[in-house]
Amino acid sequence: MGRYRARDLLLPPGWVSLSRVPLAVAFPFVEESAAASLVVLSLAALTDVVDGYLARRLDMATPTGAVLDGITDKLFVATVVVSLVASGRLPAWGVVPLAMRELGELPLVAWWLVSRPQRKTKADEPKANWIGKAATVLQFVTVVACILGTPAEAPLLMATGVTGAIAAAFYWRRELSAWRRVNGDPGPRARTGRGP
Questions:
Q1: CA proximity to 113, closest of 4, 11, 5, 16
Q2: Of 7, 6, 11, nearest to 60 (Cα)?
Q3: What CATH number is associated with residue 102?
Q4: DSSP SS3 for 170
Q5: Structural domain tally of the chain?
């Protein structure tokens, strides 16, 4: 369970995750059309839900799939952000809050790539968390607001940044807890005998 295997890319969740790559390539070409860009955006959001569902439902969670999901997510978000900034629909200051969660997760992706124990815990714990889901929803709504040019764009960007930062912090806490568990480290509270 802790190894990368090319054949895992051929599992249904992997195919769904990989479908975000052509969607990322397509977005810059349809970005000028609000309707077309919203279709591409919606399809990408759908794949993000379906790949996780399939991994859990079919018991196909793998280290390869977990990292692939993260990489394709970040690739799509990066493409959307660059396209919106280039077209003037997203102000330059909005890049960081819109991509806050992805920026916070990048070091974790590198950690999963080089750490076998982390790959195992990542595959063994595929469930999404509510703050991550909230960050995804806010990110989607904010991008829609940028595409449509609504007045809610600025407050949505700020809300997305805050939620994304909390989500990234939650992921870090979860992965560090998993790392301690795998390595037999009870953590600072357990070592000192102090409770919450």
A1: 4
A2: 11
A3: 1.20.120
A4: helix
A5: 1
What does the alpha-carbon distance between residue 58 and residue 78 come to, in Å, rounded to a whole number? 30
Name the residue among 35, 53, 109 with its Cα closest to residue 77.
109
Q: Is residue 123 part of a domain?
A: yes
- 43 within domain boundaries: yes
- At residue 183, the 3 state secondary structure works out as coil
Which tokens belong to 117? 């124990």
Dump pLDDT digits (tens) for 128-179.
578 888 998 999 999 999 999 988 889 999 999 999 999 989 888 887 887 7
CA distance 96 to 15: 29
Render pLDDT for 94-127 as a digit per residue (tens, 0 to 9): 999 999 988 888 877 676 666 655 555 554 444 5
Q: Report whether pLDDT(186) > 70.
A: no
Q: What is the DSSP letter of 89?
A: S
Instruction: Report the pLDDT value the prediction gives residue 112, as an integer from 0 to 100.
Output: 66
User: Which domain range does residue 106 map to?
Assistant: 6-185
Integer Cα distance of 90 and 139 in angstroms: 13
* The pTM of the whole model exceeds 0.90: no
- Report d(CA 161, CA 111) in Å as an integer: 23
Phi, psi of 95 (to 5 degrees): -60, -50
